[in-house]
Amino acid sequence: MTGSSFFEKAFKLQKHKTDTKTEIMAGITTFMTMSYILAVNPQILSEAGMDYGAVFTGTIIASVIAMLMMAFYANLPFALSAGMGLNAFFTYTVVMQMGKPWQYALTAVFFEGIIFMLLSLVGVREAIFNSIPINLKKAVSVGIGLFIAEIGLINAGVIKLGQISLSLGELTSANCFIFFFALIIMVVLTARKIKGALLWGILISTILSLILGVTHFPDSHIVSLPPSIKPVFFKLDFSNIFSFEMFSVLFSFLFVDIFDTLGTLTGVATKAKMLDENGNLPEIKKALLADAVGTTCGAILGTSTVTTFVESSSGVAEGGRTGLTALATAGCFVISAFFFPIFSIIPSAATAAALVTVGLFMITTVAEIDFSDISEAFPAFMTILMMPLTYSIAEGISFGMISYAVIKLFTGKGKEVSPLIYVLAVIFILRYLGPLF
Q1: Are 350 and 215 contacting, i.e. CB atoms less than 8 angstroms apart?
Q2: CA-to-CA distance for 430 and 401, rounded, in angstroms?
Q3: I want to staple 152 with a disulfide (CB 3.0 to 4.6 A). Which of 19, 70, 355, 420 is the partner?
Q4: What does the DSSP 8-state code read for residue 70?
């Protein structure tokens, strides 16, 4: 059996109107836009006292396990790795603010993954996804577009994220120059309908950064064996699993991961036109289970919560439609394990430009939202608005669902709302009111 026939049989490429070359290019593009996690996640978790190299290797293994499941079990083009925001909560809240050891935080992640698996197997997470009205799903896609564009601008130094406001960064810096250079290349190549436009933009701007001296080749060997995961492998602490603090930490991990994942799947799948006639994503249960398995394995391997990456949208924008895209991304992760010394070569400005470009692709869904009915328009507007302003996909969804349930109820359209949306709206409201009690 040839490679092409194997991929056709495994991923049904013709059915999804794609081909091997497109899928692999999409997978590489996804990897390039999310590869920063292999440098950022070990850095954040090392501040909690974990071994940097061990976390690097553990993150790769957990990501590959989750993506292999996404590829062969769910046959969807979504990439997974340690989630940003969740790793920050792990280090800066659980370890530094609460004073807990990193082993305690890993244990919370481990149980979160098990709970996720149970919720996925019985269909609770799938039911949540299917209960979200179509206009809110489209709004999530738009909101994520603005959110990842904001991340790109911040990573490039074009804007600064302060405690209460955004401001312009150093626009004359070399980093900003590389960012705008990469952005122009990506937009021009996209306009000319050249495949792999984002990937080419990243590669060309990386070469420019080497020429300008912004990044440098490492002094050590370029290729080396991955660092050992022994310092963080299965370092779980079960001594305080029944405490109220553990419950609080578990709930926080669960909340953020559930709605970041659902929001990402909703937004990326909407943009890729993968939703069915009812606005639901086929194989959503399998995708959520891959996420849960990745989280559980990740905790054992020594990394924070594994979740579906919004950067998957960059691969989808390049034409990725099947699990072969996820498989190609997983392959890049495996290869990267042997290039631990050279991850500093790819400038953050290059991947930042890709995020801004994808943000543009995703906000085009706004044209499909029904703004003629204000009971539909306002919740969609709040979803879109609050994601970039709160710097959180989950918060955007919270505001959207609360406003959707409240407005429909008080305009006499309460029967249009799924009972599950009412339940979630109440939970969100109680979560915001919690500090008052």
Answers
A1: no
A2: 13
A3: 355
A4: I
CB contact at 8 A, 397 and 257: no
Q: Which residues contact 351 (CB under 8 A, 6 or more apart)?
A: 32, 33, 34, 35, 36, 152, 155, 202
Using CB atoms within 10 Å of the CB of residue 351, give its burial: 0 to 12 exposed, 13 to 18 middle, 19+ buried. buried
Sign of the alpha-carbon torsion through 363, 368, 370, 371: positive
pTM above 0.85, yes or no: no
- The model's pLDDT over 113-162, given as tens digits with 9 standing for 90+, comes to 999 899 888 878 777 777 888 898 888 888 888 988 888 898 888 888 66
Strands (E), 48-123: 80-82
What's the token pair of residue 20?
A: 């091997």
**Dist CA 333 CA 329 (whole Å):** 6
Q: Which of 196, 206, 265, 201 lies closest to 24, judged by CA?
A: 196
Cα 119 to the center of its chain, rounded Å = 20
CA 124 – CA 289 distance, rounded (Å): 11
Using an 8 Å Cβ cutoff, are 384 and 392 in contact? no
Of the candidates 139, 113, 140, 133, the one whose C-alpha atom is nearest the C-alpha of residue 420 is 133
Q: CA distances (Å), 153 to each of 189, 220, 339, in order? A: 20, 31, 27
First to last CA, the chain: 65
CA 173 to chain centre: 28
37-79: pLDDT as tens digits: 888 888 889 989 999 899 999 999 999 999 999 999 999 999 9
Q: Which amino acid is at 33?
A: T
Q: How far are the Cα atoms of 30, 188, 354 from residue 197, in angstroms, in the given order?
A: 12, 8, 9
Residues counted in the chain:
437
Q: Which two tokens stand for residue 81?
A: 């790795």
